[in-house]
Amino acid sequence: MPTVSLSLDKHSYDVHVKNGALDAVGYLAARARMEGRAALITDSNVYPLYGERVKRSLEDAHYSASVHVVPAGETSKNMEQVGKLVEEMVQAGHDRTSFVVALGGGVIGDLAGFVASVYYRGIPFVQVPTSVMAQVDSSVGGKTAVNTASGKNLIGTFHQPVFVAADPITLLSLPERVLREGMAEIVKHAAIRRPKMLVELRHLADELQLGFSLSSIEKLPSLIAENLEIKARIVEADERETTGTRAFLNFGHTLGHGIEASVPYGSLLHGEVVSLGIRAALFLSRRLEGLSARDESEILNTLAALQLPLQLPEDIRPEDVLRHALIDKKFLGGQIRYVLLKKSGDPVLSTAVSNQDLQEAIAHLTTPVRLRKSRS
Predict the structure, then answer these.
(1) Does the annotation count 11 as an active-site position?
(2) Is 33 in the active site?
(3) Which of the residues 68, 193, 257, 279 is marked catalytic?
């Protein structure tokens, strides 16, 4: 079982990546000496697939567990749903000795983690991610949040899990679009830390053309662990995003969130807007940091191979994207902090991006992509 460890000032924990990890959740909770009752929070898509299995794992480890199911999708990530979950947990008899189990993708991880962080002023929780994006990125690092009408993740806390149990077999149940969109976070990690992964991702894209299978999934634990290693080391260096290092993980996200906020939640998936945001960040990196055309092409070709979008849909107004981007939390004191690349694997946190630059980057997204031949 590949295990990635995070060593933080006040709290360290392990991320366990194993085919079949769902059945070990109760055992891992007992090994972590977690006490009290468990509140299993999941969604309407994931519960029929894995909810009872995880509940049984908890019960086999002698935990009493209540189950709380929210409607699947980004629209559940809001304060109204937080209130409903808190009330359900009170009615189920949970107190400050209880803990939360977040079973699902990034939405559930963010939502359930936030609920755990505010229930009785904070109770423990564990992450059991079931999507690519959650397994390689969002389940680790302790960021929890919900959305508002003004933007994504504007209400949130830092609340680290006690452990993470990632089971790659769950990825077999994902719709192809959801499977592909999660790969955008792996491209992000490759771009900012490990460019050699881009070649591996293009090989994986070839397998996806033939349909993802159990044999493909069996190869994923090492890739997932490699991505988690990147995320873990960055989080260790800057747990609460105070030194700037953790901001590198926002590569592709600033304009990506602006795009996501410009359409009804769920019409574009998170990884799809990150893909568009990465293309915009590469455009700005060429202009402001001297990123080579070769490095830009390697990243764009990888996104294209994974069939991720690289051109802004015609029904999205560029002025709406800019307006939403300008209220994103990555703007401090009126000044944007934008993650750009000097070269693949070498990010920089730039404050030199002007509103005019952003407007031109968004305009660039409305044009077709011209792909050059990759090195592999």
Answers:
(1) no
(2) no
(3) 257
From the candidates 74, 88, 181, 185, which is the catalytic residue? 185
189 is catalytic: no
Residue ranges per structural domain of the chain: 3-172, 175-365
Report which residue type is found at 17: V
Name all contacts of 266-269 with Cβ < 8 Å and 24+ positions apart.
Answer: 266/73, 266/74, 266/75, 268/309, 268/313, 269/177, 269/178, 269/181
pLDDT at res. 266: 74
* Interior/surface letters 127-155, b for 16+ CB within 10 angstroms, e for the rest: bbbbbbbbbbbbbbbbbbbbbeeebbbbe
Tell me which of 241, 260, 272, 296 is the catalytic residue: 241
Catalytic-role residue among 94, 250, 296, 298: 250
H helix or E strand, kind and range, residue 324: helix 318-325
pLDDT value at 34 more than 70: yes
Q: Convert the pLDDT of each residue in 112-164 to its tens digit.
A: 999 999 999 999 999 999 999 999 999 999 999 999 988 889 999 999 999 99
User: Is 246 among the residues known to form the active site?
Assistant: yes
Quick one: pLDDT at residue 213? 72
For the question of residue 19 being annotated catalytic, the response is no
250 is catalytic: yes
Active-site choice (18, 94, 188, 231): 231
**Mean pLDDT for the chain overall:** 93
CB 192 within 8 A of CB 347: yes
Mean pLDDT value across residues 318-334: 76
CATH class of 3-172: alpha beta
The answer to whether domain 175-365 has CATH 1.20.1090.10 is yes
DSSP category for residue 241: S
Write the pLDDT tens digit of every residue in 199-250: 999 988 887 776 667 677 777 888 899 999 999 999 999 999 888 899 999 9
Nearest-CA neighbor of 136 among 62, 59, 223, 212?
223
Select which of 68, 77, 188, 246 is catalytic: 246
Whether residue 375 lies in the annotated active site: no
Tokens of 51: 């909810």
Is there a catalytic annotation at residue 94?
no
- Rounded Cα–Cα distance for residues 121 and 141 (Å): 19
